[in-house]
Batch of 3 targets.
Target 1
Amino acid sequence: MRVSVPVPSKAIQDRLIDKHPFVIKLSSHAPLNADDVKALGHALNHMLTVKKGKDVIVQGFEYKGLDIIESGFAIRYTLLHKGGRQIINTLLPGDIVGFPASFFDRSIFSVMAATEMSLHRMSFDTFVELCKGRPNIALALIWFAAREAAVYAHHLVDAGRRSPLERVAHFVLEMHFRLKAVGWASENAFELPLSQEGIGDAVGLSAPHVNRMFSELKHEGLIAVEGHEIKILDRAALQIIAEFDPSYLVRASFQQHQAKR
C-alpha cells in the first residue's frame, strides 16, 4: 500500500518546510516562530507515496498515525451495508489523513487515495509530544479541528437543504477556496481529479445527475471544464446560486482574536 521514498537532506528540509501546505495552513491559524517551524520539519521526516485507489485507512481497523498530505487528493468515506458509499470530505494538500481516525479505538471512516499521493507519516506519540512542547502548534491544530467541523456542518446542509445545482456549485467553490489557500489553485481555476461518480458520492447525487448539473453551469456561462481543470467564469453568479459564504473556511488567526479583546 505504501512505499517509502528518500527523504531530502536536513538542509533542504529546513529550506522547504515553510512552503509545505500543512505548515502554510497552521501558520494561518496561529503565530508559528522559527523553532515551531523547525520542530514541524523534524516531525515530518518520513515521506510515503500511496498509489491511486489504495486505502490509507480502513473503517473498523485501528489506526494510530497521522499522515500529512504534501501532494495529491484523497476521499474520506463510509460504506453502507447495501454497498453504497458516502464521501464525508475530500482531503487536499495540507490536510491530515488521521483526523479523526487516530482519536478512536477503531477508525470510524475509511480514506482512499483519489490520486497518487505524497504523505508524511507522523506517529500519534510524536503528534502528542509536538503539541505538549510547542503550544503554538497545539493552538493552530485546535483551529484546524474547528474548521474541519465547520466543513462537515456545511456538507450536512448540502445533503439536507440545497438543491442539486446548489450542491454542485457549492462544492466547486469550496474546492477552489481550499486549494487556493495552500497555493494549489490560481485565482479562478483549479484541477479537480475526481470522477463525476466521486463528486456525486460527495454531494449525494448520481453521476448522471452531476453531469447534468455541470452542463447547466457551463451552459449558463458560470464555469468551463477542460479535462480535470475547472475555470470559474462568473464567481458572483455562482456564489449566489450556491449561497456560498466562505467565512467557514477563512482561517481566523490567533492574532486577529487577540486584537479584538
Target 2
Amino acid sequence: MSHPATPQPGPNSAPPPKKGLGAGKITAIVVGSILGVLLFLGILGAIVGDTDTTAGDKPPSSTPAAPNSSPSTAPTVAPTPTTEAPTQSPAATTSAPAAPRTTGTPDSGIPPEPDAQARQAYLDALNAIDPRIIKPGKEDQAVSRGRNQCSSIRTIDDPAKLSALALDRFTITSRLPDIATPETGRAIVKAVRAHLCPDA
C-alpha cells in the first residue's frame, strides 16, 4: 500500500509566512521607551534644580551695609546751622545804626536850616533883586534852593558858572526871561552867600 507523496516546494513557490510580533511585545516596548524618557527628564530636572538653588542660596553681602551708614552721617550735619546762628545775629545788630546822614551836614556842602533872622534877611535880599523870584507862598522852596546853591558855591570857583546855575535853579531863565541876566545871577549868589553860607 503506497502513501501519497507530499508536494515539495518548487523554486518559484512563495515562502511560508513569518509569524508577526505579538501585541504584548509591542506594548512592552512602548511602555519601556516612555519610562526611559521620563527617567531621563527627571534626572535632567534634578541637575538644573540643584544649580538654581545653589545660585539663589548665596547671601547678599553689599546690601545690608548701605542702610547702616546713612543714619550715622545724617545727625552730624543737622546741628551745624544752630551753632552758627547766634554768632552772626549780634554782629548785625551792632552795625545797623551806623550810617544816618542828614542833607544839612557840612560834608554834603549844604548848610543847615537858617535861623529865623538869617532866613528873613535872605528872603528880603531876594525880594530886593526882584519880587517875582520868590513864588507866592513858596518861601520854603526859595530857602531850599538857596541852600543847594551853597553846595555849588563850595565846589565851583567860576563866577559865570555860579551865576548861570543860580538862574536855572531859581527857574528865572524859564519864568522871568526879562531879568535872566548874569547880573541877576550874581546878585542871587551874593544873597545866598551872605545869609545862608557866609563861610563858603
Target 3
Amino acid sequence: MLLEDLAVREAAVTSDAVTAHAGALGGRAGVVLAIGTGSVAVGIGADGAYARVDGWGPLLGDDGSGARIGTAGLRAALRAHDGRGPATSLLNAAAGLFGDLERLPARVGRDGNPARTAASFAPRWRAPPTPGTSWPRPSSGTRPPTWPRPSSRRPAASPRTAARCPWPSPVG
C-alpha cells in the first residue's frame, strides 16, 4: 500500500536499532548502543559480521534500559514502603513523582505503556541517597546483569553472531 504511494522500488522493514546503526555509521564497522525506554546494541565488524545484543523488550530483556532501571527503583521504593527493604531516598522520590504509593500500580499502567512510565523514574537514581539511607540491593539469590568479558576467541556461530550485515555495507 505504501509502495503504491511512493516512487520507490524497494522498502525495508527493520528494527529501530538497525536503522540507528545505518544512520549513525552508514554501514561502516562499529557498534551503536541505543538506551532509552528499552536497550539494544547492534554492531557490524570489519568483516561485515552482524551482531545484536538484547532488545528483547521490557518483559524479557532490555537490561540497562530506562524501564529496567526505573522498575528496579520503584520496586526498592515499594519494599521500603512495605517495610520489606531498607530505607531509601527512592521512597520519597517515587511518592514525589507518582503520588500515593498505594495507587502506584494503577498509575504505572494508566497510559498503556508501563515501560515508559517506569522509565520516567530512572533519572531519580542519579541523586545520591540521603544521609542514613542506603541504595537498594538485589534480593538474595540475584545478581545484577553483566556483559560478557571481551575474548580473543570468536564465539561459536549462531544466527545472532554469524549473520552478515543486513544492508549493503562498504565493509563487507
